[in-house]
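Lecture notes, part 5. Sequence design as translation. It can be helpful to think of inverse folding as translation between two languages: the language of shapes and the language of residues. The source text, in structure tokens, appears below.
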């Protein structure tokens, strides 16, 4: 593609995004969201997630297919220790052993008074989200699992959306997951 074509596309794209659609489908009804940052790996995507978690002041709701990266788990634990409410919704494979090591990073996080985890009931379909919301104002999503390989070695992306509406949309979906009656709970 020639440079002139790229410049034309760069100028036309924002105008196309601002032009409302007229077919009434879900995509065109959704408002345009500003404040979007996209990061690509491989590389140190871990720094992005740790930095976002460190900025939390009230709450973090995270849906994680895989949550094994110690830096991210430690950042979540530190957030819980400073009074941030941390809720983890995890795929059942995250709890392979029903009696996990009480000294594992994840067990220590879940043991924090401000942290709670629920596991999706074992089913044919996995819980495959890799997303979290912070303080009702930031949504982090993308293909990157919360694992060392996902954050550092694999071809992945992280999308950070600074929008209370985007965070609220995720939170609505998260609350539905969290409320499933067949979830396995870590606390009564």
């Amino acid at each position: 593609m020639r440079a002139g074509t790229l410049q034309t596309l760069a100028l036309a794209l924002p105008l196309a995004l601002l032009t409302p659609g007229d077919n009434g489908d879900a995509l065109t009804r959704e408002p345009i969201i500003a404040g979007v940052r996209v990061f690509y790996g491989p590389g140190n995507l871990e720094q992005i997630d740790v930095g976002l978690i460190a900025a939390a002041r009230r709450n973090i709701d995270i849906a994680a297919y895989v949550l094994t990266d110690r830096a991210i788990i430690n950042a979540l634990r530190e957030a819980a220790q400073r009074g941030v409410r941390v809720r983890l919704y995890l795929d059942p494979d995250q709890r392979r052993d029903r009696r996990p090591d009480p000294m594992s990073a994840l067990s220590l996080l879940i043991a924090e008074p401000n942290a709670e985890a629920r596991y999706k009931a074992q089913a044919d379909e996995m819980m495959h989200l890799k997303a979290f919301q912070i303080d009702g104002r930031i949504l982090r999503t993308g293909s990157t699992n919360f694992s060392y390989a996902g954050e550092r070695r694999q071809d992945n992306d992280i999308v950070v959306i600074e929008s209370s509406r985007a965070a609220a949309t995720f939170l609505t979906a998260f609350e539905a997951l969290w409320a499933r009656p067949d979830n396995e709970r870590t606390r009564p």
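The translated text above is only one of many valid answers, since several sequences can fold into similar shapes. The radius of gyration is 18 Å.
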